Amino acid sequence: MWQAEASIELGAIRANVARVCSGTSAEVMAVVKADGYGHGAVPVARAALEAGATRLGVATLSEALELRDAGITAPVLAWLLAPGQPREQAVAADVELSAASLTELAEVAAGAVTVGRTARLHLKVDTGLGRGGAQPRDWLELVEAAAKAEATGFVEVVGVWSHFACSDEPEHPANDSQLERFAWALDVAATAGLRPTQRHIANSAAILTRPDAHYDVVRLGVAMYGLTPIAGRDFGLRPAMTVRARVALTKRVPAGHGVSYGLTYTAPAETTLALVPLGYFDGLPRAASNVGPVQLGGVRRTIAGRVAMDQFVLDCGDDDVHAGDIAVLFGPGDDGEPTADDWADVLHTINYEVLTNFGSQRRIPRVYR
Fold first, then answer.
1. Active-site residue, from 33, 124, 215, 280
2. Sheet strands side by side (includes 326-330)
3. Is 261 one of the catalytic residues?
4. In the chain, where the domains are located
5. Ramachandran class of 251: left when φ > 0, alpha when ψ lies in -120 to 50, beta otherwise
6. Is 286 labeled as ligand-binding?
7. Do 223 and 13 contact (CB within 8 A), yes or no?
8. What angle do CA 157, 160, 163 make, to 5 degrees?
9. Each residue of 26-62: b (16+ CB within 10 Å) or e?
């Protein structure tokens, strides 16, 4: 019998992807980095492709090769490789790569020469986010160098891309500014002789609110997993992950009894305590101490005391709870259980972090429904 699990509803993944596909004429790139946001990259990738996505996006080379090793042949873009990474392995596996500097461009070209096949390349421009991407002052030099690399036959520039900084705030002026810079970057690339067929800047929030940002490809991330990319907005998405665990022990304690390290919680009256075997090793942040919402016995409760490495406690009062009962940390909310957004609210973070915290832990097996 299972002790704790992350249940993944693949039907929800398919429905979310299909919803997005029906609302855009662009190709949909399903982003399955970070092990599919904790849901499992390979099962999610397959579900997304079945539902209409045509491409996959990951951060690292190892993530891309995992998809290829699983027999997935759809186009895959890996966009975050440090210097010296074996780009020849990516080219050999038909993994598309990104470059934002002359050094990255040279490494991609060298990898292509090593394996004797053409590298498919996306050039990234920094339109204002300030992370990856070439600065506008360096963009002309990069696209001209990329055009020369294309002439060798070992590089094909198939994409130009960028990333929004504030798309989760649809009215933020930075969004229009970034789109203007992106249009400029595309013009510069065209002047250099490049003809990319995959122009992309829209992430989940922009997919749902900025059709003018869709271009050729949109990158579907957190919305694919059923969570809203914009706080307070309901886009009809269905969360795919439910995290739950069985109560390990219940016991009665007298009024005034302390709970967990530091005794930061004290039972206000005689009560039943329920011990749940999940802790910060399993992705439950210690910051959830005394604030984390959990449903047990059909009642939404709050974690009592500090979260430990392997366990936490719920104060259940006089409710009839027993060892073996199921405590639900979050799910789609169908039965009143907390959602990942509820957890994000009490932890003062974003739902992305909640998903990846829980879904990436090896002590919580994933079960696919």
1. 33
2. 299-302, 293-296, 326-330, 241-246, 4-8, 366-368
3. yes
4. 9-225, 241-368
5. beta
6. no
7. no
8. 150
9. bbbbbbbbbbbbbbbbbbbbbbbbebbbebbbbbbbe
Residue 182 tokens, joined: 């992106």
Q: Helix or strand or coil: residue 63?
A: helix
Catalytic residue among 124, 215, 261, 368: 261
Let me know if 33 is a catalytic residue.
Answer: yes
Q: Closest Cα partner for 235 from 208, 206, 211?
A: 208
Would the pTM count as exceeding 0.85? yes
Contact 207, 20 (CB under 8 A): yes
Q: Token pair 């006089």 is at which residue? A: 318
What is the DSSP secondary structure assignment for residue 6, as one 8-state letter? E
Residue 329's alpha-carbon distances to 127, 254, 326, 355, in angstroms, are: 39, 26, 10, 11
Distance (Å, rounded) from C-alpha 120 to C-alpha 358?
34
In this prediction, residue 358 carries a pLDDT of 81
Q: Model confidence over 23-67: pLDDT tens digits?
A: 999 999 999 999 999 999 999 999 999 999 999 999 999 999 999
- pLDDT(270) > 90: yes
Residue 309 annotated in ligand binding: yes
pLDDT of residue 237: 97
Averaged pLDDT, 82-106: 98
- Look at domain 241-368 and name its CATH class: mainly beta
pLDDT tens, residue by residue, 209-237: 999 999 999 999 999 999 999 988 999 99
Beta pairing partners, 28:
218
Helix, strand, coil share of the chain (percent; to 5) = 35, 25, 40
| Span 302-341, pLDDT tens digits | 999 999 999 999 999 999 999 999 999 999 999 999 999 9
CATH annotation of 9-225:
3.20.20.10
Nearest to 329 by CA among 340, 319, 314: 340
> What does the pLDDT look like over 105-138, one tens digit per residue?
999 999 999 999 999 999 999 999 999 999 999 9
Q: Are 111 and 95 in contact (CB under 8 A)?
A: no
